[in-house]
Amino acid sequence: MRVGLQVNNFTWPTGQARLGEEFGAIAERAEQAGFYSLWVMDHFYQIGYHGSAEHEMLEAYTTLGFAAGRTSRIKLGSLVTGVIYRYPGILIKTVTTLDVLSGGRAYFGIGAAWNAEESMGLGVPFPPLKERYERLEDTLQIAQQMWSGADKPFDGKHAHLGRTLNVPQVISKPHPPILIGGIGEKKTLRLVAQYGDACNLFARMGDDILKQKLDALRGHCEQLGRPYEEIEKTSLEHIRLSRDGVKETLTPPQVVERFAHLAELGFDQGIISLSRPTDPEAFELLGAQVIPEVEKIRPTGR
What we know:
Elements: E1 2-7, H1 19-33, E2 37-40, H2 60-70, E3 75-78, E4 81-82, H3 88-101, E5 108-111, H4 116-121, H5 129-148, E6 154-155, E7 160-161, E8 178-181, H6 188-195, E9 198-202, H7 207-224, E10 232-239, H8 252-265, E11 269-274, H9 280-294
Parallel strand pairs: 1-2, 1-11, 2-3, 4-5, 5-8, 8-9, 9-10, 10-11
Antiparallel strand pairs: 6-7
Helix pairs in contact: 1-9, 2-3, 3-5, 6-7, 8-9
């Protein structure tokens, strides 16, 4: 099983002036600790689950490009990009650039978007949900066309491109893994089965709901004739880690047990966020006592 890290909070004790220094150190520590992947949210305001909208938030792809320059092995992705935030052809060009400059380490994380507050605040049109899903499917088709090398027009429900030229082409083969975020059983998981290489679910939903979502994905795969095993299943959760297991924290063995349980459910990669991502001790514990043990775990179905 693989372990990923999401950095979703940039409000740190050292302040705004040292954000670059601190985030660069986090990226380097994550790679040294053995994390398989590094993720950031694609939001322009902080979201309520993590803090006030007025808290620090970095633009995703600039941040990932910065991380690419500070690392050499760890995979890099947005968890996940809101489809309405960028023109689709420009978005695929952006992810292509990340993949090329990182040496083939990009994921393409994308979803239908939900945060009306930041869209309205920054003047980004926020269409109804049905249209956002239609735009998501357009963008997934554009990604496949641009990454196939096809240089021709594209006419979707909302996106119309005169020429899908994409040079240089991605290094990842056949393309950066497409991770589609969201938990909707009828639309989102159908798109995963049809276009995706990975999905992401929230571990906090509990076993029964996680099993239900994975069963729904399996059903879509069967209907489309897609092998369910081809799709990487990732989970996301917040971890409070401590060497001694004080109140409301987990010890390294408990974290390993948590990953083992997710693997038993069928997850291939557990992505975590940390309470104190600027604390080097957390990375030392994860690198020495958690990640090597988790990598020995074989997910169900693999």
